[in-house]
Amino acid sequence: MTIEMYSRDDCFWCKKAKELLEHNKLDFKEYKIGQDLTREEFKERFPNQKTVPYIFVDSKPIGGYDNLHEWVSYNYTD
User: Fold this and answer.
1) pLDDT(76) > 90
2) Which of 22, 21, 34 is nearest to 62 (CA)?
């Protein structure tokens, strides 16, 4: 399974998404806007996505934090 997350350093929900993934011991690759790609590159890749975090599992878009929380709750338990 491959999890990818697009995020920003100053994003509260990005931090919460990382904490959720780490808490559940799920490996993920993080791409930071402003570091790994520009804001313009993000908009070009995902023209309809207006917010971060933007999370993918096995190349399929999950969505943001709420969607990730639902996905983790459905697939993983403590």
Assistant:
1) no
2) 21
